[in-house]
Amino acid sequence: MQRSATLDAVRGILMLYIVVVIHGAVWLQLASDQGISPWLFEMPPMFMVSGAAFWLQTRGQPGPYAAHLLKRGWRILLPYLAYGLACAITVEVMAEASAPGWPTTLWNWLNPMLHGRAAAWSVLGAHLWFIPVFLLVTAALPWATRWRAPAAIPPWGWLLAWVALQAAVDLIPQSQLLTLRQTVHFMGYTLLGWHLARAPEAISTRQWLGIGLAGVSGLLLMRWWQADPGVLNMQQHKFPPSTPYLLFGLSWVSLFMALGAHLPQREALAARLVRQAWLRPFVRDGYSIYLWQGLSFSLAMAAAQRWQWPAWSALVSATLGAILFGRLTSPIERLGLQRLRWPSAPHAPRAPAASAKTSRA
């Protein structure tokens, strides 16, 4: 797979941002919903990075679908199962009085679609909604990218269609089909990232600014029309993602894309960033850190409550613990992948070696 220093740097920065800023603020209650709401832009670009990486990996030729499912599913599920087992043990030990018992606890944590919902403790599974959504997006991506969009439709036309689709999905009651709603929402960003990696100049800076302006205008219009301050509360509209969150996410993505297009020596800057000690763990072990932050924050919060630690101490210890857990468990991400390579086509027979006379000629 061809790697991109820019994608690695963006992925690492986003993972650092999620662990330290978003979950630090929300889980440790360092900010209110209104205070953290304007900064909840992390997931749209994360799925865009995933789509762009899929293009770099396949170049439009994803290969056998079974091989894709096996390799990607193994890479996602095996680290999750290791984390789920650790969470099941933690629940039975730390929440013994309220734990539902080993069979129920194990089933809830080892099933990625449940991700510990019925056997929860602290924030062990508060971030694991991402796993079933990412699995479904990954499974659908080879099929979704086979369809080629008509080139005659301008970006604003696709924007209107996307918003209309999201508005239709919003009609589903919030308590139903939550994972499917999240998958549909973030699949749009994944396909956007794939398309931009395939055709980087498809959307100009001027068009990005227009999309951003349209997103902000749409949010303000919805706020005026509904006369409800909750329209601008993205913590409320992120779960499940709704039309306000789509407009919000597109506004941030447009800003990032417009600024990034004019960043001088972008790839060289990204190459320097990924070598920095403060970012390197999140680039190298990002998925494992994302998983194990739940256990690290849960233990840090329990310690802070027992020994009356200040919030910043809990944040520092939780972050360092997540990095340590992620580093120790990251080899699981690559465990056995060399055995999961799909058999390649037989090599063509070698041409006979040239004679000495021919070589001299």
Main traits of this protein?
361 residues; mainly alpha; 66% helix
Account of the protein in words:
With 361 residues, this protein is mainly alpha-helical. Helices cover 66% and strands 0% of the residues. The protein has 16 helices and no strands. It is globular. Mean pLDDT is 88; it is low at 342-361.
Tell me the number of strands. Answer: 0
Q: Outline the low-pLDDT stretches.
A: 342-361
Structural class given helices, strands, pairing? Answer: mainly alpha
Shape, principal axes of CA atoms:
globular
Indicate the mean pLDDT. 88
- Termini separation comes to 40 Å
Number of helices: 16
Summarize the helix and strand pattern as letters: HHHHHHHHHHHHHHHH
Main sheet: strands, sense, barrel: none
Radius of gyration: 23 Å
